[in-house]
Amino acid sequence: MDHGLCHERLISLARFFIDQSQISGDSVAITGADAHHLRDVLRLKPGDVIAVLDGANREYCVRLDTVDSGHAEGSILSNCLRQTEPRALLTLAQCLPKGDKMELVLQKGTEIGYTAFIPVVSERSIVKLDADRAAKKGERWRKIVQSAAEQSGRARLPEVHSLHSWQQLCDRFADFDLVLLPWEGEEAAGLKETLKAKNIGAGVGAGAGVGAGASNGTSILVIIGPEGGLAVSEVEKARSCGALTVSLGPRILRTETAGLACGVAVLYESGDFS
After folding, report:
1. Rounded to two decimals, what is the model's pTM?
2. Of all residues in the chain, what percent carry a pLDDT higher than 90?
3. Confidence of residue 9 (pLDDT cuts 50, 70, 90)
4. Are residues 103 and 230 in the same domain?
5. Over residues 167-193, mean pLDDT
6. 264 and 133 in one domain?
7. CB contact at 8 A, 145 and 157
8. How much helix, strand and coil, in percent to the nearest 5, is found in the chain?
């Protein structure tokens, strides 16, 4: 199996995340919505070549052998390890914003390098979801993340967790090495100084947080409030559970912007853009 041509050949191909159970020897099975997209949207046919990712940092160059409705099969031509995941294991806890802003956050957050997302209902969240709506939203959000991960060349598929209450979120802080809470009321502690004080650039201490095992980096949770901001009682609760409040600078960022800006800054300090 040719490994040397993997990166050059795969960089421009259509990408699909699959479960490792869909790989058998030198054969790959594409099923369900992916098979539909492959045949009816991309109009691919036997002989065409695609890239397949197994969610464990390995990417396969696959030549399609059969393309049917709901099912396609192909032969593996080559495979290689993808080194595209960030050093820091970055999870975004986003309080639900209005409209379709959550979809923007998920899409761009995936492209930037977040490894997981936790949707949160806070005291001032305008959007309220019952169990059925939350399940439907979760399904759509996962599709958005998968599409963004395939487009941006991610080697692992970021996880979208179930809807959390503020208390449920705080209960998870122990899973992370560092919990950051950007807050407009914080005037003393800047994000850059906090990251340097925690030695984030050294990339030490792999935690057991969401997405652990993807790299040797620190697991970091970033919490972003809704349009109306967080209640003081929520900030105090988060602080009591170990969160560090930080300032993102002199300007007030929108909820759909703050998590992206914070994520880029954290990844930069951790050496992801070096």
Report:
1. 0.82
2. 56
3. low
4. yes
5. 93
6. yes
7. yes
8. 35, 25, 40
- Local structure of residue 190 (DSSP, 8 states): B
Q: Over the chain, what is the mean pLDDT? A: 87
**Residue 43: what are its φ and ψ, rounded to 5°?**
60, 40
Closest C-alpha among 155, 274, 171, 177 to residue 222: 177
User: What is the per-residue pLDDT for 202?
Assistant: 60
pLDDT reported for residue 77? 93
Instruction: Report how far residue 225's alpha carbon sits from residue 243's, in angstroms, rounded to the nearest whole number.
Output: 14
Q: Which domain holds residue 63?
A: 6-81
The number of beta carbons lying within 10 Å of the beta carbon of residue 144 is 18
Measured CA to CA, the distance from residue 68 to residue 150 in angstroms comes to 22
Grouping H, G, I as helix, E, B as strand and the rest as coil, residue 240 is helix
- Please tell me the predicted confidence (pLDDT) of residue 186: 87
With respect to residue 155, please indicate whether it lies within any of the assigned structural domains. yes
Residue 263 placed within a domain: yes
Helix axes 101-112, 255-269, angle to 10 degrees: 10
Based on the structure, what is the number of domains in the chain? 2
pLDDT 10s digits, 40-97: 899 999 999 999 988 888 889 999 999 988 899 999 998 888 778 888 899 999 999 9
Residue/partner pairs of 237-242 with CB below 8 Å, 24 or more apart: 237/166, 237/167, 237/170, 238/166, 238/170, 238/173, 238/179, 238/181, 239/181, 241/170, 241/171, 241/173, 241/179, 242/173, 242/174, 242/179
CA distance 62 to 60: 6
Dihedral sign for Cα 196, 205, 263, 124, please: negative
Q: What is the CATH number of the domain that holds 149?
A: 3.40.1280.10
